Amino acid sequence: MNLDTVLLNGKIYTMEEEGKSVEAIGIKDGIIQFTGTNKEAEKYSSEKTIDLEGKTVIPGMADSHMHMYAYCQNQALVDLKDACSIEDMIGKMKEKVAHTPDGTWIKGVNFDQSKFKENRFPTKADLDRISTRHPIVIRRCCLHAIVANSMALNVAGVGKGYDGGSGGIVEFDKNGEPNGILREQSTKIFDEIIPDPLSDAMEKRRIMQNVFEDMSSKGVTTIHTYAAKIWNYEEDVALYRKFGEEGNLPVRVTVCLDELFEKEVLTEKEKNDPYRMVQYGAYKLFTDGSLGSRSAALQEPYSDDKDNRGFVVCTQEELNEKVLKGYENGLQLAIHAIGDAALDMTLTAIENCLQVTREKGMSKEEQEERLPFRIIHVQMVNEELIARMKKLPLVLDIQPIFLCTDLHWIEERIGAERIKGAYCWKTLKDEGLIQTGGSDCPVESFDPMKGIYAAATRMDFDGQPEGGYYPEERLSVYDAFCLFTKNVHAATGQQDKLGTLESGKFADLAVLDRDPFELDVKNLLEIKVLKTFVAGRLVFVL
Ligand SMILES: [Zn+2]
Q1: Residue 532 in 3-state DSSP?
Q2: CB within 8 A of 202, min separation 6: which ones?
Q3: Who surrounds ion ligand 1 at CB < 5 A?
Q4: How large is the greatest C-alpha to C-alpha distance in the chain, in angstroms?
Q5: What pLDDT does residue 395 have?
Q6: Cα 134 to middle of ligand 1, angstroms
Q7: Please, how many CA atoms are within 13 Å of residue 12, restricted to the half-sphere of its CB?
Q8: Inter-residue contact 476 to 10 (CB < 8 Å)
Q9: Cα(442) to centroid(ligand 1), Å
Q10: Can you say how many angstroms the Cα of residue 307 is from the centroid of all Cα atoms in its chain?
Q11: Do the Cβ atoms of 438 and 329 come closer than 8 Å?
Q12: Which class for 257: exposed (0-12), middle (13-18), buried (19 or more C-beta within 10 A)?
């Protein structure tokens, strides 16, 4: 057989089982045709041969839960959180000016003048140095104050003697002209007139393309992206498909929606096509909020807020009905549940759904053919909940990277007893539950190596606490990689096509500059991706 590409002299971890590696891999038409020794590879001729020079190869990595559109929206803004002086802030904003047409709004966010070495608020005079041909506003990290340049003030009609209205503050210089600083209610004028940066189709495409390229550079080959109508995170399947048709989509995209949609029916041919990049995923439902804001629904009150158990966003009956309706429409359900009470409610709805559909005549076999239910976050469990989960067809979409932040306050919030059932990845794994790795980006970085580090170390990015937070719940490096490779594909029923490097599977893989399985876990974050392939196509080279 004449192959398209052969990779030789590698340490190629197939991820079929812990430690299994081969030296060579052969690819044709987007599919892995062979794995084995260098010697065995000699049997094949190939268009292209790549000498890996002993480097490590792993399957392409995947993110099981993120919000692509929301992240792209953020990319349209200039993040000023690291700006350490007014000069620095101006420099960061000027980079944006360089590729923004005249007259287009530019918005900076997260500035904090207390971090500036000048230790003063910037004014319109500072912002006019960025550009006088673009309306510019920057918003303080607290969201309560903004600074505008002259053009932005003009466009907004903020001039001499402007009345900021009740609850608003507009500052003026000694000549009575606005100095650019607006506070509280008067900042709203800009929210009303600045358009959604992604409403410009060209800008949207440019940003999306950059984000996809960034993902490739981190070895990401699959994302599951979630719409959230309430926060205006739209997800446009047609647009992803367009990127694909044009050959500009280096990442497989599974689009999950938070409203009922028509089930996508794929032919065998489509399922077996390694170049099919875009598909519909799950139907998403919410049950509760978050632990950080004490809105996750708990069975007992918060340990640091004795009158509060958080809350659920719907009744059990409403959830049962929605789950059943989605399931009967042939859709896969993905349900956000963070607190233990929310998980209890979610499991009840799934148990109810399976029971009711059986009573209505669906066979056990038909149910077994369906994709698993997905539960998103699952941050608190206990023995009773684990026992129930084990009886159900589930995958748990977790975000190990959350622990890097949460470990600093989580025990105060839920107490010494319940902490044992929080983020207890090893326990869940040992109970046979499938966990998939995600980032919830833009909440956290989509760099999967950070999630793998978090799962394997349970330390924050400063290496604290040393040895890990409740280290008995650390995963092995292999299991941490499973979260971000093959487990994700179990969620979409594609485990026979993706997630390991075996003959017959789609050729999605990443070449690393060092071997993560032979490295001190503390150093996982130093690993660099050298090359990324999707369906045998090289989409990134360092
Ligand atoms: Zn999310």
Answers
A1: strand
A2: none
A3: 440
A4: 84
A5: 98
A6: 34
A7: 28
A8: no
A9: 9
A10: 33
A11: no
A12: buried
